[in-house]
Amino acid sequence: MELRETVMAALKQAMKDRDAERLSTLRLINAAIKDRDIAARGEGREDGVDNTEVLGILGKMVKQRQESARAYEEGGRIDLAEQELKEIGFIEEFLPRQLTEEEAGKAVDEAISAVGATSIRDMGKVMGALKERYTGQMDFGSVGPMVKARLA
């Protein structure tokens, strides 16, 4: 089942269950996917976005909510921070399992050998290979320094 179909099925189930918090988050996910579909059609891709791009959208949504939750906690708005964390939980249901630090290191080593990277100039190729294979499974902000250290 395609990821967008899974989101739609969950949205319908949330409507049936009258789960307002979950329904609200699922509608936000659906709107973000449709927005990217419209942009993709403008670029000439009639099929819209694929599963990889949907995973990217979901990852970005999680990251935004983590930043918002941190800001709310710093501002003393624990109630709003808790709401953001609940939304993260709903979004993460559709993301694949995150790689551990050890698994991410192994994936970096494999990507370096796969693209034949030898210097820091090849970092873009390595990151591209990782994004192609592990979108939604790792935080590329923390993986970047790991790649840089291995290529230096």
Describe the structure.
It is a single chain. By secondary structure, this protein is mainly alpha-helical. The chain has two domains: 3-92, Orthogonal Bundle (Hypothetical Protein Yqey, Chain: A, domain1); 101-151, Arc Repressor Mutant, subunit A (Orthogonal Bundle). 76% of the residues lie in helices and 0% in strands. The protein has helices at 3-17, 20-42, 51-74, 78-92, 101-115, 123-134, 140-151. Helix 1 (3-17) runs antiparallel to helix 2 and helix 6 (123-134) runs antiparallel to helix 7. It is globular, with a radius of gyration of 18 Å. The protein starts with a helix and ends with a helix.
Could you name the key traits of this structure?
152 residues, mainly alpha, Hypothetical Protein Yqey, Chain: A, domain1, Arc Repressor Mutant, subunit A, 2 domains, 76% helix, globular
